[in-house]
Design brief:
Structural class: alpha+beta
Oligomer: single chain
Strand order of the largest sheet: 1-2-4-3
Helix content: 40-55%
Number of helices: 5
Number of strands: 4
Order of helices and strands: HEHHEHEHE
Largest sheet: 4 strands, antiparallel
Bound molecules: flavin mononucleotide
Shape: flat
CATH class: Alpha Beta
Radius of gyration: 16 Å
CATH superfamily: NADH Oxidase
Strand content: 5-15%
CATH topology: NADH Oxidase
Length: about 160
């Protein structure tokens, strides 16, 4: 197994694999956001802020321990890929088909990472909700977000 995250050439292969996914009418309903190691601290802040906002929205008291756990997630892997789905309404394809293309691309991406010798993990959950939009990625909270921890050996 590789000891660090993928280099640019490997990332290129990984993304190439992702965009070969079945995609009815080639809608390209995905966005990939790469978070390299040098942005881990900024990503940690995004995760912590998202946690605080969730607490605010739900009235749950903030736990500093929990907040620290959220931030720490940003250092669990050398590279994170956020996969966002943006269902398109103005295409002649049912919305569920455009949505289905995104996990297909995600799986391709994970398989490519594995083939290159990287460990990876597909992660969802509350810490994904809204983190993308907070990071300025243009993702919308009501969209479907999938946060990944490929490719890397620290998952
Ligand atoms: C859509 C989707 C969402 C997932 N979300 C999570 C998650 O939030 N946390 C988690 O531990 N595993 C999640 N998994 C499963 C992991 O990606 C992985 O397959 C599972 O943890 C087994 O991996 P392991 O053998 O390395 O533990 C998800 C899988 C899919 C397909």
């Amino acid at each position: 197994m590789a000891e660090s995250g993928p280099n640019p050439a490997e990332l290129h292969q990984i993304f190439e694999a992702a965009v070969q996914a079945s995609d009815h009418r080639l809608c390209r309903p995905w966005s990939f956001i790469l978070i390299p190691p040098e942005l881990a601290a900024a990503f940690a802040d995004v995760l912590a802020s998202a946690y605080m906002r969730r607490c605010q929205e739900t009235g749950v008291p903030v736990s500093l321990q929990r907040c620290a756990r959220e931030s720490a997630k940003a250092f669990r892997a050398p590279v994170f890929l956020v996969v966002a789905c943006r269902p398109l309404l103005d295409v002649p394809v049912p919305a569920h088909e455009t949505v289905a293309a995104v996990p297909a691309a995600t799986q391709n991406l994970l398989l490519a990472a594995t083939a290159l010798g990287f460990r990876s993990k597909w992660v969802t959950g509350p810490s994904c909700d809204g983190s993308g939009s907070q990071a300025g990625t243009g993702s919308r909270r009501e969209g479907q977000h999938r946060r990944l921890r490929p490719p890397g050996n620290g998952a």
